[in-house]
Design goal:
Layout: E1 2-8, H1 10-15, H2 31-46, H3 54-66, E2 71-77, H4 83-90, E3 106-107, H5 141-151, E4 155-159, H6 166-178, E5 188-192, H7 196-209, E6 214-218, H8 222-227, H9 231-235
Parallel strand pairs: 1-2, 1-4, 2-3, 4-5, 5-6
Length: 245
Amino acid sequence: MNCVVWMLGRGASIACNLAWDVPRHWLDCDHDALEGKIKAALQVEMAQPTVNTLPYKRLLAELAKRTPPGWQHRFLTTNWDTLLQREMDALRLTTAPDWLPETHVFHLNGAVEALRESDGVRRRSPFLLETDAASHRSSSVEFNQALQFIVWRKVFVVVGISFSCPTDRGLLAVLHSVEDNLPVGFAWWLLVNQDRESAEAVAALIGAALPKAVVTYVATPFERWVADGMPELVAAKILQPASVP
């Protein structure tokens, strides 16, 4: 089964009107205290009436309607917020459809909410700050499962991730270490980032880590790209055209 790995970052949260960032004066706190402050603040911010998860809702609806046989999707995020997981849960799936074999959103850098008791086997990735060194990442079931999945896949859609912080660059370093031997080294990476300069910088980082990969970008806001029908995925025959019932 072919699979698209969706990697969602801050740009996807901003599309949902969740633009909160860690106040600079908080950075003087120790790690544990800062983690607690961030989790408390983001819980409040996610509950604000201005936050709108419609971009995620529309994405999932389009994938459900337009994913052809033989393709499926998995979701990973570098964000701490759980907005996408809430939309996944809102699908209320009792059985896994062909297009979505896994409703768990893998949080590579931790999350503000603990895993549900039934998901305890996927012990949450450690909560990593943007200022943490890559070596700060400790082993976790969730991250290890996500990494094992990443290295065997050949199609990635990256939304709003800059790979500028040490922990995210550390992920690219891990992929670089296996790029000659595993499918990820020959993958197609489609970057969706409305800031062309940022998109070009991310393309350069991925290209340096995975020189045999194909990296392209779409300088369009995430929500508009979804509304436009995700034409690059249609051209690659990963999605059916929007006009197909």
